[in-house]
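Morning!

This is the sequence you dropped in the shared folder:
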Amino acid sequence: MQNIAPAVFVATSVLFFTVVNWIKVPYYYQAGLFDFAILAQVVWLAPLVPLGVWVGKRLAMRVDRALYERIILVLLAISGVLLLTR
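The structure's back. Tokens below.
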């Protein structure tokens, strides 16, 4: 980790993944990978987004930086192992 605050890390990650996922939208649509029936089934989850943002912000502000870094590194390691084994 580069000694950045948890809030900065979370904000940077959110921005990065938002941009990356929006870049994929036209290509997924062109490839016919969008299933609008499934999208209609999960649209009810949209009102929960502000709640998730609020909870995430509170957790990022309260957790100790060293603990936060350990949690992120463990989650990255687990993600790496899952990517290698699938």
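Headline: Residues 6-30 form the longest helix (25 residues).

More detail when I'm at my desk.
O.
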